[in-house]
Amino acid sequence: WARRLGSRESNSAWYRPTTHSSKKPVRSTSAWATIVNFLLMVTVQTIAAWSLATLLSLITLFSWFLLATQRFKPSMMLPCKDDGCARLAKKLFLLQSLLLAFAAGLVLMRITQLTQNHQDNVIDNLIVGLSSLFLIRGIGDFKYFGIFRQEEAGNFSLIDRKWITPLALFFFVLSVILLI
User: Fold this and answer.
1) Rounded to two decimals, what is the model's pTM?
2) Cβ(171)–Cβ(59) under 8 Å?
3) How far is CA 64 from the centre of its chain?
4) What is the rounded CA–CA span in Å between residue 138 and residue 52?
5) If both were cysteines, with which of 15, 63, 148, 168 could 8 make a disulfide (CB 3.0 to 4.6 Å apart)?
6) For residues 4 and 111, what is the distance between their CA atoms, to the nearest angstrom?
7) Which pLDDT belongs to residue 109?
8) Using one digit for the tens of pLDDT, what is the confidence trace for 1-13?
């Protein structure tokens, strides 16, 4: 059996005897080599994930800032005209900011999976749910908000058309990239 395979010494293509020297090779990495290694490690998914997590966190902090400084207006959340709707809009705005913080945490968990080259069905399913919520918000209810809204007058419609709907669709695209 040993003769058929050959001895290690005779098959020098895969066996090279090592010599031990007292000098250890010195590894020097420059800053450019570190940057190149980092850029090679970064993928489209991690860029999308960091972008999404950063934007969700910033929007959450901005929402809390608006609530803490009493600058929140009910027309930012719902097309309101009475006082009862204003209280409901404030509660929904707080709930929305908490859900955005949860979504940012979920995306951060996905980032750790991407950096460790790991897949988890639970996180994948939660990201699918998150992306579907962004798509539903982007499409809208066909009356007050979303792409297919019919009402164009009012502060809420202006904010929705300029900021909320494009952000929801952009977040949908970024969250779908996390799943690919």
Assistant:
1) 0.71
2) no
3) 20
4) 16
5) 15
6) 50
7) 93
8) 444 544 555 544 4
